[in-house]
Design brief:
With 179 residues, the protein is an alpha+beta fold. Helices cover 17% and strands 37% of the residues.
Length: 179
């Protein structure tokens, strides 16, 4: 039994030494792998690179047809804009075709004339679904313009943000309950 134990112990020792020698024979040369840095240069929201340049709030009076321009800007140098207008319930879009197709060949601001009317006072929205085809790809963006109708229009105009200001001011009323 002692002889069997000695054989097993000797065999395991030789196996361990052989494994260590096998590791030492091969020299491992490591080549530094280049680290690929991922740089993202796009900081805008995903979608079409279109922004609203004109005022985001249009003030009109009830029962009047108001003519105004919506001004958009894109960083693309050429392409085609397809604009579909969706006025909220109670707001009417007059004398403007939908979809409205505009071809452009410079990055100058794009003016879209619209005529709006509402029968009752209140706040409405003119939603726009804009598709930008720059001949390489088609991208979309949804924008909205606030249409304030009635005597609250003066107050709403005062609450507009100034150019370069990153604060959005919203009208609010607070009620305190005595519970």
């Amino acid at each position: 039994m002692y002889a069997l134990y000695f054989c097993i112990k000797s065999g395991l020792s030789l196996l361990a030494i052989a494994a260590l020698l096998g590791c030492m024979e091969k020299s491992v040369t490591e080549f530094p792998t280049p680290i690929k840095s991922i740089q993202s240069t796009k900081t805008a929201k995903p979608g079409a690179d279109i922004k609203l340049v004109s005022n985001a709030l249009i003030a009109i009076m009830a029962n009047e047809l108001a003519h105004t321009d919506i001004v958009l800007e894109t960083m693309e140098s050429s392409g085609e804009l397809i604009i579909e207008f969706f006025p909220s319930q109670g707001l009417s879009l007059k004398n403007t075709s939908t979809p409205h197709v505009i071809k452009f060949d410079s990055s100058a601001p794009i003016k879209i004339p619209v005529s709006l009317a509402a029968m009752t006072n209140g706040r409405y929205y003119l939603n726009m679904h804009i598709s930008l085809n720059n001949m390489d790809s088609i991208s979309v963006r949804n924008l909205a313009v606030i249409v304030q109708v009635g005597p609250l229009a003066e107050q709403a105009v005062k609450l507009q943000k100034t150019v370069g200001e990153n604060i959005i001011v919203l009208p609010a009323q607070e009620t305190i309950s005595s519970q």
